[in-house]
Amino acid sequence: MSIKSNMESLIEEIKILEKNSISGEKVNLIAVSKTRNLDEILEAISGGAIEFGENKVQELREKIEVLPEQNFHMIGNLQTNKVKYIYDKVRLIQSLDRVNLLEEIDKRAKTSDIIVNCLIEVNIAGETQKGGVAYDEVRSFLETCLDYKNVSIQGLMTVAPDTDDEELLRNCFKRMFKLREEIKNSYSEVRMDILSMGMSQDYRLAIEEGSNMVRVGSKIFGKRIWR
């Protein structure tokens, strides 16, 4: 199947999955375009893709330059020294996970007199090889974020473990949904509009358990191209 038809099929499938979600919310699809070329991205756009996710700053900058009308998200680990290149060009930074990154984003945003929208990345399974705030430390980190007025926390993001264990994945997604709901009920000044969880291998489970944003790459573009 073509990228265009993959995209169209995925959009239709997500509409069906939304009906079985515990939240009942509309699900926003982020097409993960890392390592993909312009022609592939344009084909995804022809199939209905509106927003794209990138995890490397240089690649993100190059794609924004040729596709300035598209909405791009930073979904990978973001080094503080590279914030200056993308903070004012992306719709959302999904990988906010430490104070020095928070400080740098806020500093840059303040200089430009803008608000930068971010998600707190949560390391839901405590995996040492992954970034993200530890589950039990999310509230404390959120309270720190509230002191930085040019950063707006829009919700939470997680990358679930790479496993076929459906029970484990469901448990991770359930805990994320619970955390989001607890924060919504405890912090009236915080927007918790977005729960970004679910990728090509587990987006169906994630949507069922309350995700309203999924980040899908290989399901759209085919097997990942490594660089």
UniProtKB/TrEMBL annotation:
**Source species, domain of life:** Bacteria
Signal sequence span is none
Q: Which Pfam families match?
A: Ala_racemase_N
Q: Where is the Alanine racemase N-terminal domain?
A: 10-223
Question: Is Mitochondrion among this UniProt entry's keywords?
Answer: no
Assigned keywords, A-Z: Pyridoxal phosphate
Cofactor(s), names only, from the UniProt record: pyridoxal 5'-phosphate
Single GO molecular-function term?
pyridoxal phosphate binding
Q: Any keyword Transit peptide?
A: no
- Chain positions found as N6-(pyridoxal phosphate)lysine: K34
NCBIfam families according to UniProt: YggS family pyridoxal phosphate-dependent enzyme
Task: Provide the function of this protein.
Answer: Pyridoxal 5'-phosphate (PLP)-binding protein, which is involved in PLP homeostasis.
Q: Return the similarity comment.
A: Belongs to the pyridoxal phosphate-binding protein YggS/PROSC family.
Q: Any idea what this protein is called?
A: Pyridoxal phosphate homeostasis protein
Q: From which source organism is this entry?
A: Peptoniphilus indolicus ATCC 29427
